[in-house]
């Protein structure tokens, strides 16, 4: 079997996999529509943004699409006064707003408007308030990209699960209002709730080294690679020995990815149960560019002893499948199959 044929087979399988998940999300949508009076109409989504500033006009659009799905939107915790660095607010103000939301017992769902940068700066205030936050009712945080810094704190220190998934401003429903937006267009709001309530099953998980064919299981962790890397050798770094780590990124060249993965390889503390790589290439990347990123990941996989998988169906691309962080994940591989399958149970506290 030629290398080119394998690549084409992989791409066609990924497309088919994404299509089946979209169909599944549509089926779930009809169920939600029928039960809106009992479920969605009683569910309030609190919006928050703790990183880069956002376009104020997007909030009314978010409210529109969530309302159309039967959900209520609350903007109590949106407090934008952009700084010279382009953050939503000062570090302290962003931290205090987030802490207020995390300790508000009326909040169950906290959905991030956007990512960007700057969430890591909030750690001193978050860790100072750790006891207060831990004593509050658990919240389900939803988002990705720079939100990884918040997920890391919530998952590893507060011990709450969360959802690595589409932002409130970038999803299938928002794409219907603005066709120019391409990030997360194949993943709906309803699919996130489906994942929370029913768990997930993804196929087309490509094993990249020999240990990967044995399968893997552990507690899911990670998110944006740059944020995970930023925590190395800090007092905030977690123990990865029982973790399956997902990694994705954007605006990282193949050379930069290669350099960073050598750092991951050389780390004395990054020894996870397994790693799953998502999308790193840009949305309009050519097939050759996609192959180059895959080659870098393949080379890394051959240098490490733990299982490495490739699943470019999450991250800053058109497909951003939801994952439940701080929850069990199981990867199984069959001897007669080119790809493995991944499952997670419904989210539970």
UniProtKB/TrEMBL annotation:
Domain of life: Bacteria
Residues in LD-carboxypeptidase C-terminal domain copies: 217-330
Keywords linked to the UniProt accession: Carboxypeptidase, Hydrolase, Protease, Serine protease
Gene Ontology MF term list: carboxypeptidase activity; serine-type peptidase activity
Gene3D superfamilies: Class I glutamine amidotransferase-like, LD-carboxypeptidase A C-terminal domain-like
Entry similarity comment: Belongs to the peptidase S66 family.
PANTHER family per UniProt: MURAMOYLTETRAPEPTIDE CARBOXYPEPTIDASE (PTHR30237), MUREIN TETRAPEPTIDE CARBOXYPEPTIDASE (PTHR30237:SF2)
Record-given protein name: LD-carboxypeptidase
Protein source organism: Mixta theicola
């Amino acid at each position: 079997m030629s290398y080119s044929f394998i690549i084409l087979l992989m791409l066609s399988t990924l497309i088919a996999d994404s299509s089946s998940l979209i169909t599944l999300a549509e089926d779930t949508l009809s169920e939600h529509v029928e039960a809106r009076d009992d479920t969605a109409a009683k569910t309030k989504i609190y919006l928050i943004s703790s990183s880069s500033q956002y376009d104020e006009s997007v909030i009314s659009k978010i409210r529109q699409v969530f309302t159309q799905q039967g959900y209520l939107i609350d903007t109590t915790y949106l407090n934008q006064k952009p700084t010279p660095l382009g953050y939503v607010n000062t570090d302290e103000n962003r931290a205090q707003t987030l802490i207020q939301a995390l300790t508000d017992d009326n909040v169950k769902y906290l959905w991030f408007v956007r990512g960007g940068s700057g969430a890591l700066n909030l750690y001193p205030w978050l860790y100072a308030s750790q006891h207060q936050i831990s004593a509050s009712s658990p919240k389900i945080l939803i988002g990705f990209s720079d939100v990884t810094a918040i997920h890391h704190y919530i998952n590893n220190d507060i011990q709450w699960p969360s959802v690595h998934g589409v932002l409130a401003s970038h999803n299938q429903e928002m794409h219907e209002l603005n066709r120019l937006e391409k990030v997360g267009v194949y993943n709906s709001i309803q699919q996130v709730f489906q994942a929370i309530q029913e768990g997930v099953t993804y196929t087309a998980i490509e094993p990249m080294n020999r240990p990967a064919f044995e399968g893997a299981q552990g507690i899911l962790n990670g998110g944006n690679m740059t944020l995970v890397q930023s925590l190395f050798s800090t007092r905030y770094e977690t123990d990865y020995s029982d973790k399956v780590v997902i990694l994705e990124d954007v605006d990282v060249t193949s050379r930069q990815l290669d350099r960073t993965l050598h750092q991951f390889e050389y780390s004395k503390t990054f020894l996870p149960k397994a790693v799953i790589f998502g999308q790193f290439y840009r949305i309009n990347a050519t097939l050759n560019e996609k192959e180059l990123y895959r080659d870098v990941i393949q080379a890394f996989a051959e240098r490490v002893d733990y299982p490495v998988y490739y699943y470019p169906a999450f991250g800053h691309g058109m497909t951003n499948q939801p994952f439940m962080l701080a929850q069990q994940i199981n990867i199984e591989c069959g001897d007669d199959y080119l790809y493995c399958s991944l499952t997670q149970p419904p989210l539970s506290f």
